[in-house]
Amino acid sequence: TENTQLLSPAIHELAAEAIAKADIAEITLLVKVMGNAGHPASLKPIMKILPGFGSAAAALPIRVQVDAILALRSIAKKEPKLVSLATFLSTWAIGKIKVSCLIVYTYSVL
Question: What is the spatial distance between Cα 12 and Cα 41, in angstroms, rounded to a whole number?
């Protein structure tokens, strides 16, 4: 819809600023906002937070990375091929992140 198209660039810009500042609380909030919106254009900014896809991920706590993966759930419902390929081609993930990836995978399959 028009509201989503207007809102997405603003959220993506705020997310980029929060990542540059390493503001964990703001990153978490914006990742959850992008996940709730479920717009496929949010896939790229969310992936920047994940290890193996963005350099900022190394400095972020695992909880933020798990939130980023879980934010992919609503995008997975709309674009299952994009999310499943992007999420599961990674062999970098540790235990908690792999479990989150499996949760997102089940959303993309259903």
Answer: 9
Confidence of residue 5 (pLDDT cuts 50, 70, 90): low
Span between the terminal Cα atoms of the chain, in Å: 24
Distance CA(100)–CA(89), nearest Å, equals: 14
Q: Give helix 62-78 / helix 80-88 axis angle, nearest 10°.
A: 150
From the list 4, 5, 35, the residue with the least C-alpha distance to 49 is 35
Distance of CA 108 to the CA centre of its chain: 14
Over residues 40-95, the pLDDT tens digits come to 888 888 888 887 777 777 788 888 888 988 888 888 888 877 776 555 556 566 77
The tokens of 46 are what? Answer: 């969310």
**Tokens 């207007």 -> residue:** 6
Q: What angle do CA 81, 8, 34 make, to 5 degrees?
A: 60
The C-alpha angle 59, 84, 104, rounded to 5 degrees, equals 70
